[in-house]
Amino acid sequence: MFVRKKKNPSGVISVQVIDKSSGKYVVRKTVGSSKDVFKVEQLVSLANQWIHDHTGQEALDFTNHEQITRTVLDRISGITISGVELLLGRIFDEIGFGRIDSDLFRPLVLSRIESPSSKLRTTDYLFKYYSLSIDVEAVYRYMDKLYNTQKEKVQQISYDHTLGILEGGISMVFYDVTTLYFEIEKEDTLRKTGFSKDGKHQHPQIVLGLLVSVGGYPLAYDIFEGNKYEGDTMLPIIDAFRERYKFESLTIVADSGLISNKNTADLEEKGYKYILGARIKNQPAKITEQISALNLKNGESKVIRKDKGTALIINYSDKRAKKDLFNRERGLKRLEKQIESGKLTKSNINKRGYNKYLKMEGKMNISIDREKFEEDAKWDGLKGFQTNDLSLSMEDVIDNYRQLWKIEKAFRISKHDLRIRPIFHRKQRRIEAHICLSFAAYKVYKELERQLYEKKASISAEKAIDIAKTIFSIEVKIIGSDKTINKTIITNDEQRYLVGLFNIF
């Protein structure tokens, strides 16, 4: 039933109670009529009260299924997505994030997984699908609090949980960086132009460093100025991590792009063990001669001792050799096109990338150094790994290094699934708070992924989230009462599989 205000030809407005439960509009009661606006509103209030008083006295014809269905539908007071909270909310609590003292941390983290967008759109989404009325300014104020007092606690909770799920604890960590660009023109003290991993060199950016455990579980992070050399970001994060958790021994695994002679020396001076990607072409002459003399077959590895405490492991792969050749030929073709178009000048002759194959002929002509191109073929398929942990076998070194792909996957998930960018914030504290929310969201995502693996599930984490987003709950008012009941609706086999997998009910 509902209240209708019907305007008569005379200008008088009649206030009526209308019943549509039979499929037709039936006037159940005319409460009164008036031309006065305030009197009409009083009549509307009386009509609503009449509906409330007489709702419990409705006589339902239980043989009329259509009437019963319409009556129930008329009493639905809310429909919300419940699957995400039932699935990810439970994982959120199992990790320990429920200990963060805020009503906003939970919805902001879960919505980052479910429907990542700007904070303004997030508040709109939470209102539409969860009936949560959150002012966007309250979100911004909370982000300031998160930055000031809770960021360290979030990382501590993530660390404690990771320590609990890893057999043997944490003795090895993996480090890598990525860049996050901003679609702005002017730099500031944090957002600066630099080498962009997204190819957005013209845009100011920040550098994000991430430390993860075996399995790719996030441990710590920090952000740096966009023009900072990525190799200089590693030790500050690792040193702070070791100091915070009082590690006596820690092995660092990192890619060759982060390594210089200086930070390798710093790692050794500070007592770290390490497994690092090695730039084999840049080794001393006596080492490169030994590498060139190797005749490795697919999958074979050899150890070359650099000095008393450092080993260089060289591995060969046919698959890698094909990829190296493909990339060199593609780079060569790109250079040839640029030469034909006249776009290259003397300034393009440098050691960066495939520009190393350029040379000057006479005073004006730029050409391809074919000899240097062919000379590089001897490196195809070779990959170097440097370590100062001589207790490890070649296989262990290579296997541990290969786990770096999990941190690359972490960045891929953060950038694409969680859409860590674009970042719509200008102030550094809010940029850092945004990264913190994304860090927590990635931790929840990884724990979902781990539990699915343990349960031998046939679906991915992404698929599980998609299914959870289709599970709704309805709230229905009880006839003759102010009370309501909630019912979660499961309608298909995918939903039943997910519910059964996690024993949600």
Pick out the low-confidence regions. Answer: none
**Biggest beta sheet attributes:** 8 strands, mixed
Query: What's the overall geometry?
Result: elongated
* Strand coverage percent: 15-25%
Number of helices: 16
Rg computed from alpha carbons, rounded to a whole number of angstroms: 32 Å
Number of strands: 16
Question: What do these coordinates show?
Answer:
Helices cover 44% and strands 21% of the residues. It is an alpha+beta fold. Among the domains are: 2-74, no CATH class; 320-379, no CATH class. The chain is built from 16 helices and 16 strands. The protein starts with a strand and ends with a helix.
How are the SSEs ordered, and which strands pair?
Layout: E1 2-7, E2 13-19, E3 26-34, H1 37-55, H2 65-74, E4 76-81, H3 83-95, H4 105-114, H5 119-130, H6 136-165, E5 172-181, E6 205-212, E7 218-225, H7 234-245, E8 251-254, H8 261-269, E9 273-278, H9 285-293, E10 301-307, E11 310-316, H10 318-341, E12 358-361, E13 365-368, H11 370-375, E14 382-387, H12 394-402, H13 404-417, H14 428-454, H15 461-468, E15 472-477, E16 484-489, H16 493-501
Parallel strand pairs: 5-8, 8-9
Antiparallel strand pairs: 1-2, 2-3, 4-15, 5-6, 6-7, 9-14, 10-11, 11-14, 12-13, 15-16
Helix pairs in contact: 3-14, 4-5, 4-14, 6-14
What descriptors fit this protein?
505 residues; alpha+beta; 8-stranded mixed β-sheet; 3-stranded antiparallel β-sheet; 16 helices; 16 strands; 44% helix
Give a concise summary.
By secondary structure, the chain is of the alpha+beta class. The protein has helices at residues 37-55, 65-74, 83-95, 105-114, 119-130, 136-165, 234-245, 261-269, 285-293, 318-341, 370-375, 394-402, 404-417, 428-454, 461-468, 493-501; strands at 2-7, 13-19, 26-34, 76-81, 172-181, 205-212, 218-225, 251-254, 273-278, 301-307, 310-316, 358-361, 365-368, 382-387, 472-477, 484-489.
